[in-house]
C-alpha cells in the first residue's frame, strides 16, 4: 500500500508546457523568410528564362515557408511555384514529378491544394499536376497534406 505524502519531487515533467491554449507553432523570422522567398523567386525566374523548368520546379519547392503567418510571404511563394507549374507542357509534367523525391511531391501537393483554394480559375493546370502527382505520391501524399498543421 502506498503512503500519502506531500512530496512532489517525483514530478520531473512540466505538464503545463503541453497545454493546447499555450501552444504556439514554430515560426521563422519574417525578415529572413521574406528574403528567402525573394531570393528563391529571383532564382526561379532566372531558371525559367533559361528554359530549365525541371530545375526551377525543384528550387521553387525547396524550404517552403511552413507555418509562416505573413500572408504576403505565403502568397509570393505560391505565385513563384504557380509560375513554374504554368511553364510546363502537359507532356513534360510526369517526367518532372518523377525527378522529385517524396517530400518534394508532398510540398507540391500542398501548393496544388492551395491553388485550388485561391485560384479556382487555374484549376485546369492544377488538376493536370494533381493527377500526375497522385500517380507518383499515391494516397499517402494526399493524407499527409490534409493532416499537416503547418500550411503553406
Description:
The chain is mostly helical. The protein is 62% helix and 0% strand. The protein has helices spanning 30-49, 53-61, 71-87, 93-98, 102-118, 123-147. The longest helix has 25 residues, at 123-147. It is elongated. The termini are far apart. The model has no long low-confidence stretch (mean pLDDT 85).
Helix/strand-derived category reads mainly alpha
- Overall geometry comes to elongated
Fraction in helix: 55-70%
Residue-averaged pLDDT? 85
- End-to-end C-alpha gap: 54 Å
Radius of gyration: 21 Å
Number of helices: 6
Strand content: under 5%
Quick structural gist:
62% of the residues lie in helices and 0% in strands.
Layout of helices and strands:
Elements (H helix, E strand, L loop, with lengths): L29 H20 L3 H9 L9 H17 L5 H6 L3 H17 L4 H25 L5
Helix pairs in contact: 1-2, 1-3, 2-3, 5-6
